[in-house]
Amino acid sequence: MEELIEKHMGLVISIVNRFNPKNQTEKDDYIQAGRIGLWKALTKFSKTGGSKFSPYAWNPIKWEIIKEMNPGLVKDRSEKFTNSFSPDFLKWLKYIN
After folding, report:
1. Residue 85 CB contacts under 8 Å (≥ 6 apart), including other chains
2. What's the predicted TM-score (pTM) here?
3. Residue 82 — φ and ψ, nearest 5°?
């Protein structure tokens, strides 16, 4: 699994760079969150579905980074999002998509 994570770290870095981290510490935090998203994508990906891995992995990586950026964003299975987004965050979210 570690070999596959290292193989696809370029995808994580390219997604992290779209978020324009303010400093190296923030970038490192986003990279770690992206690695978690990459690991989740690798564990759930099925080659039999006919899709390529990179497009499949994009959303899990992106959402782990977003959760790192906005720690109040917690989704409980029985509740909706417990945090309301600021207008600036929503505008920025549309920009990166």
Report:
1. 70, 93
2. 0.70
3. -90, -5
- Cα separation, 5 vs 44, in Å, equals 14
| Residue pLDDT, tens place only, 45-83 | 877 667 788 888 999 999 999 988 887 665 544 345 545
The 3-class secondary structure across the chain, one letter per residue, is CHHHHHHCHHHHHHHHHHCCCCCHHHHHHHHHHHHHHHHHHHHHCCHHHCCCHHHHHHHHHHHHHHHHHCCCCCCCCCCCCCCCCCHHHHHHHHHHC
Query: Exposed, middle or buried, 9 (CB in 10 Å: 0-12/13-18/19+)?
Result: middle
